[in-house]
Amino acid sequence: MAESNIEDLLIQLRALNNALSKRMSLYKQFNLEFEKYFAGETSEAHYEALCNALTPEFQMIATKVEEIEEDIRAVHRRGDLGDLIHKLRAKEHAKLNDSVRLQIYRIKNRNSNMDFDDEIEDIQKRLPQTQRDIQELWDELRHETAELSFTVES
Known about the structure:
This protein has helices at 3-38, 44-74, 79-111, 117-153. It is mostly helical and 154 residues long. Helix 1 (3-38) packs parallel to helix 3 (79-111). The protein starts with a helix and ends with a helix.
């Protein structure tokens, strides 16, 4: 691969890392604000407004990550990295769906006569593994970024 292509690939991987860091920050905010709402520290309207504000940000990051994946596959012909990013996107999608479902079940469990304990327990068991999978994929991508950085600097 020509040096300019390596540098461009490195730029793409750094942009991916920035997007993933931003998404992690959004998750923290999303979960923190839910816990405040669930504990009665903030109103439902406040939590709903936060969700409405965060949703487009999550979507924007998802679009950016998808664009990076496509570029890495098409321009840089790095299907191996594209596959890692694709797996990461799938795990992130599962994490977001489970996080939202967990919050919904917790609210329903508190506010209705229906019992969602089994669903809550299933999601709570699944989420840590999903997070570990995400971390492993992200570590592989950071390793590739470090190797490319070393190549460019040499």
